[in-house]
Task: inverse folding
């Protein structure tokens, strides 16, 4: 909920960056700031828009006492024995009751998720698959920590991946000093602890994001392995917004149009 203190220093050149958090540009495809709520909402890329909508909807339903948070958190006995499978989604999409922390976390999620999804250049299913893989990793780690809601770890996973993709972006803090985005996640840890919060959610998200980015982009034996690309069923369910017959992928590789293998991966 401390995200409002950071904005992009647009005086610095930002190669390989598109719409950056708290910068001067508006939502993707908008060509600038949105002229109203409708343009802002429909200008969000589809996965970010769905996540944003679900976060708001669950909080509204909870505030109206139409849905109890007790039916939303991650609870494996309820999932496995009572088949309450919606908890696998709602536990990653509930930011608590209305208030300043809710607003700031929602802004944080929209800004970084939006920017990161743009890095996938219209491949919405690939971005969603990254979130699914991250959610699986977070659930495994959470077997030890037993946190009821996992929205914050997933949010900070996206921040970590974004900071790895744009390590040289300059983040301005209160206009007093700049910090490189590569160190931004660690700065958030310090701020969280200074405000009396626990950094556990941050660290879980960072760890999962680091493992994902390292294996997908940096480690040669697993770089661009098919497991990091969505299965055919997910690609059919979430239609991609193609960027042309051949586009640069988020990690710098070239993605050819057409002929994608059944499980995933980039066609040769």
Result:
């Amino acid at each position: 909920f401390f995200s409002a203190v950071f904005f992009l220093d647009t005086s610095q050149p930002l190669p390989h960056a598109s719409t950056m958090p708290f910068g001067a540009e508006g939502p993707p495809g908008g060509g600038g700031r949105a002229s109203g709520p409708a343009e802002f909402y429909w200008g969000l890329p589809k996965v970010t828009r769905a996540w944003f909508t679900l976060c708001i909807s669950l909080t509204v339903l909870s505030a109206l006492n139409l849905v109890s948070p007790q039916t939303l958190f991650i609870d494996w006995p309820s999932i496995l024995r009572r088949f309450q499978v919606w908890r696998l989604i709602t536990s990653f999409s509930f930011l608590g009751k209305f208030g300043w922390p809710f607003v700031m976390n929602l802004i944080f999620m929209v800004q970084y998720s939006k920017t990161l999804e743009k890095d996938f250049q219209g491949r919405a299913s690939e971005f969603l698959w990254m979130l699914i893989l991250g959610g699986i990793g977070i659930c495994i780690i959470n077997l030890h920590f037993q946190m009821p809601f996992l929205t914050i770890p997933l949010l900070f996973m996206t921040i970590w991946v974004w900071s790895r993709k744009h390590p040289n972006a300059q983040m301005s803090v209160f206009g007093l000093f700049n910090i490189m985005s590569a160190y931004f996640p660690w700065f958030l840890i310090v701020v969280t602890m200074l405000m009396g919060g626990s950094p556990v959610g941050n660290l879980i998200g960072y760890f999962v994001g680091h493992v994902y980015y390292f294996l997908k982009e940096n480690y040669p034996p697993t770089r661009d392995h098919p497991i990091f690309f969505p299965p055919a069923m997910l690609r059919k369910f979430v239609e991609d917004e193609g960027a042309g017959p051949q586009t640069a992928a988020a990690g710098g590789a070239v993605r050819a149009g057409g002929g994608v293998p059944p499980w995933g991966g980039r066609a040769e």
Remarks:
- The mean pLDDT is 81.
- Strands lie at 6-8, 170-173, 177-180, 246-248, 254-256.
